[in-house]
Write a structure and sequence with these properties.
The chain is mainly alpha-helical and 325 residues long. The chain contains twelve helices and seven strands. The protein starts with a helix and ends with a helix. About 3% of the residues have low confidence.
Amino acid sequence: MSSSRLDYYQRIFAAYLTPSKSQLTFWHGAPLFNEQLQPGQLGQYYMPFTAKADYPGQYDEQGIPMLDYHGAVGLQYNPIAIAQYGLGNYNLFSRTGDSERRRKFLAVADWLVDNLEQNGAGLWVWNHHFDWEYRTPLKAPWYSALSQGQGISLLVRAHRETDNPAYLEAAQRAFETFLKTTDEGGVICVDGDGYTWFEEAIVDPPTHILNGFIWASWGVYDYFLHTRDEQAQRLFDEAVRTLRDNLPQFDAGFWSLYEQSGTRMKMLASPFYHSLHIVQLRVMHRLTGEPVFARYADRWERYRRSFIRRNLALGYKVIFKLFYY
């Protein structure tokens, strides 16, 4: 077994089987739909993230959360987690008017401004400065449509709240990655059928991770709501078409797929990500009115409630991991 593979299993076992805090403390809370979202308005974020707003792990001196991945990865800044922590605090500030929630939300906005970096193509991204064990390993520094989208979602809300031009400028810079393909240093992939995907993991061939694609699309939508940028409106419309037409490819008949893995065995979603898909589709239905999103959310909810299907999915997922990870 290679040293990287051994480190991966040690890190996963430590996260799941020991009482110490890990990145899973942050990521694996129950996905929830924000009933207070308002379609067509830049209001509260579409998922509450209230538990994430009270992340019980470590923070740096500025109050920015850091995630402990254990093993060789260790304690790290994760731009996605930081944005979600900030969005959770924004939601709580919107509901309560609590000045401490506002301070935490804007501390994240400041971190996002300060940590935008140019990639090799000259585009501005939030990098992950640690290697990540994916089927095609992600080598530091790497960036993602997911972090780009959620960073934008936070920054446009910060700009609306404060009118600080630095927040809008950073959001504009980050949005430029959605105008370029992954070959050009951006985060979009246009497949052979003309569908536009926002890639969470930028690998070749692309894997079209479902949850990351949907979350990234919300960043594009938020950018449009705040700026009325016609390119953002077009991109979100393309994302809706991509999701609407390709949902059948993510349905295994008893569970949802995490991605289009390109492997002989398909990569099913974990129970957490399957539940997340359901919530994300309900949000997409609320935002767009497209009935197909509600139909698949209902179907995947029936899968989730089935004892047989849940256990079939779990067994399948274990076998997939043994063969491909």
